Amino acid sequence: MKALSGQRSAVRIIYHIILSLMIPLFILTISTSKASAELTVKANHDHIKIDFFYHGSTVSVAGNTDSGTDLIIKIASPEGHETLKQKGKVGGVLWMNTGTLNLEKVPNFYSIYSTKNIEDILSTDEMDKYVIGYPALSRNIEIKPASNEIERSKWFNEFVKYKESSDLYKTSSGKILTSAKDGKQSYYILTAWPYQAPPGDYLVTVYAVKDKKVLEMAQAKVNVEQVGIVKVLASMAKSKAALYGIISIAAALLAGFGVGLIFRKGGGAH
């Protein structure tokens, strides 16, 4: 009987040891799950339709996060391939195409917003990991031909200037509106969506940042789609190029004829 009692006591001791180890682990799991669910994101007007009268749109991004965290919002298209023509003076007189520049792993659309300057709130390793900011983007993409780092940097800067001139690339800080209440922080930003952005799916990623590290991420999508006559003409241009060309010429001739009639009715030029 004493031996049986001793066994039961040993079982109780082992049970209490296991229980004492599992309770903190259970609490830690709950805390971790709670932390990972703090950051939320919602993109308003996430389905943009390109019709005959389309000339750009707007997209707002909003959500909630823990107070005391900085935020970075990245809106980007999937990485892909781009080809650009290099121009230079031939014979010191004429500007002509002198070569082709191939870029790989590069997004066609890339827009970054942050509560503060990215360099002040995020480490270089984190920027490279999540491809946040132009320096990280330059290290991520491949540029050919580029024989050395100086040439590579030169062509990347020219590429960014070209994209910024078309409103397809943008970085800015301090434009995210935030407000804190009851230990939570809400955020909001309204962005202009350029008409130059082609149809496709775009990813909105919000990063909660603290101590120069990304704590959490949340994502939403924006879809840009051609509709109506624009979709029909775009499809025709790809699948029936000859017919599309004839229709384009006919439309141009009709437009010219219409303008001529207007001028005749108005008495002609003076």
Number of strand elements: 13
Largest sheet data: 6 strands, mixed
Distance between the termini: 124 Å
CATH architectural name of the largest domain:
Sandwich
Number of helices: 7
Rounded mean pLDDT score: 80
Shape: globular
- What is the fold-level CATH name, i.e. the topology of the largest domain? Immunoglobulin-like
Strand content: 35-45%
The proportion of residues forming helix, as a percent range, comes to 25-40%
The top-level CATH class of the largest domain is Mainly Beta
Number of domain modules: 2
**Spatial order of the strands forming the largest sheet:** 2-13-12-4-7-9
- Unreliable stretches (pLDDT < 50, length at least 5) are 14-37
Return the structural class. alpha+beta
Please characterize this protein's 3D structure.
By secondary structure, the protein is α+β, with helices and mostly antiparallel strands. The N and C termini lie far apart (124 Å). α3 (124-130) crosses α4 (134-140) and α6 crosses α7 (241-265). The protein folds into two domains: 37-225, Immunoglobulin-like; 230-265, no CATH class. It has helices at 2-36, 118-121, 124-130, 134-140, 149-165, 228-239, 241-265, and strands spanning 42-44, 47-50, 57-66, 70-76, 79-90, 94-107, 110-114, 142-144, 169-173, 177-181, 184-193, 200-210, 213-226. Mean pLDDT is 80; it is low at 14-37.
Please give a quick description of this structure.
The chain has 270 residues and is α+β, with helices and mostly antiparallel strands. Helix content is 40%, strand content 38%.
Question: How would you summarize the topology of this molecule?
Answer:
Layout: H1 2-36, E1 42-44, E2 47-50, E3 57-66, E4 70-76, E5 79-90, E6 94-107, E7 110-114, H2 118-121, H3 124-130, H4 134-140, E8 142-144, H5 149-165, E9 169-173, E10 177-181, E11 184-193, E12 200-210, E13 213-226, H6 228-239, H7 241-265
Parallel strand pairs: 2-13, 7-9
Antiparallel strand pairs: 1-3, 3-11, 4-7, 4-12, 5-6, 6-8, 10-11, 12-13
Helix pairs in contact: 3-4, 6-7
